[in-house]
Amino acid sequence: MKKVSFAEFGGPEVLHLIDAEEPHPAPGEIRIAVRAAGVNPVDWRVREGQVLGAHPIELPSGVGLDASGVVDEVGEGVEGIEVGDRVFGEGSSTYAEFAVLSAWARMPEGLTFEEAAGYPSVVETALRVIREAGVRSGQTLLVSGASGGVGSAVLQIARDRGIKVIGTAGAANQDYLRSMGAVATTYGEGWVERVRELGRVDAALDLAGSGVIRELVELTGDARKVISIADLDAPRFGVHFSGVAGSVPEALAEAVGLISRGKLHIPVEKSYDLAEAAAAHIDSQAGHTRGRRVLVV
Fold first, then answer.
1. What pLDDT is stored for residue 290 in this prediction?
2. How far is CA 55 from CA 44, 96, 145, 236, in A?
3. pLDDT score, position 54
4. Which helix (H) or strand (E) holds 98?
5. Is the peptide bond before 25 cis (omega within 30 degrees of 0)?
6. Could you give the CA distance from residue 144 to residue 204 in angstroms, rounded to a whole number?
7. Backbone torsions φ then ψ of 73, nearest 5 degrees
8. Which residues of 40-67 are buried (b: 16+ CB within 10 A; e: fewer)?
């Protein structure tokens, strides 16, 4: 089968499409014929060799956590899923023609494979950081870097829970944030004052790692009310860096419910062929994503 792999840490040029042996599921796992794979920032962070305790790897390594596809092998002890089912979920080395998933759910009606591949890690992360921030209905959450996949999920989940969201993004993404239910403002010079004019901030999320931790602490008045998924220096400011996933099966179940109720939709900004994984990483690292980027297999 074809698979994207890297044998050394580095830039996107270390990614190569290779011929590899097909994986097979262990007990409690399933294998899918991959139709699409989500491109997440953690993918290129791991490729660069960044120290992420939740994702230790050995070289050479495959790439990717999220995928959608059709079940073609079911591991021992797995119940409630059959060969031929359309699923989305999380596993390992999902930039490939076949991948093993450790967590999955049936795809909701009306969702394409490309769309479905963009949800698993994104929704788990969004649910986790909202919980860790301790923000409740009637309060205001500030989201820095709100237009990407996790931001898109946070905005919609928060709205469904009665939480007001102030989102920062580039000028081109202001209407997009508003369409997701956020009060939108641009980052850049004067952004702290612009946020203050919009009212009190009860908690804040750093989703972009753009060096704004100090300002987020200032706006909330409490480092414990700030969560980062993108700035490894966050603990220097007393801010929690959230890098360890919670229950992916529970997150997928909640995602299915939200999608089925019409409360969650994350658009696919751009799709790439499997051989274009390096280009997908370059674009992901450049930021300014509106929704998700996925590889089509």
1. 85
2. 12, 19, 23, 22
3. 53
4. strand 98-106
5. no
6. 8
7. -145, 140
8. bbbbbbbbeeeebeebeeeeebbbbbbb
At 169-207, the pLDDT tens digits run 999 999 999 999 999 999 889 999 999 999 999 999 999
Give the chain's count of helices (H) and strands (E). Answer: 9, 15
Mean of the pLDDT values across residues 105-134?
96
Residue 281: CB atoms within 10 Å: 25
Model confidence pLDDT, tens digit, residues 105-116: 999 999 999 999
Per the structure block, which two tokens stand in for 231? Answer: 């700035």
Of how many residues is the chain composed? 297
**Structure tokens belonging to residue 206:** 């750093």
Distance of CA 145 to the CA centre of its chain: 13
| Residue 276 and residue 296 in contact, taking contact as beta carbons nearer than 8 Å | no
**For residue 247, what are the contacts with CB-CB under 8 A and spacing of at least 6?**
124
Contact between 223 and 217 (Cβ < 8 Å)? yes
Pure H helices in the chain: 41-48, 113-117, 120-133, 149-160, 174-179, 191-197, 213-220, 248-260, 277-286
State the Cα–Cα distance between residues 90 and 105, nearest whole angstrom.
Answer: 10
Amino acid at 91: G
Beta carbons within 8 Å of 5's beta carbon, 6+ residues apart: 15, 16, 18, 20, 60, 61, 62, 63, 93
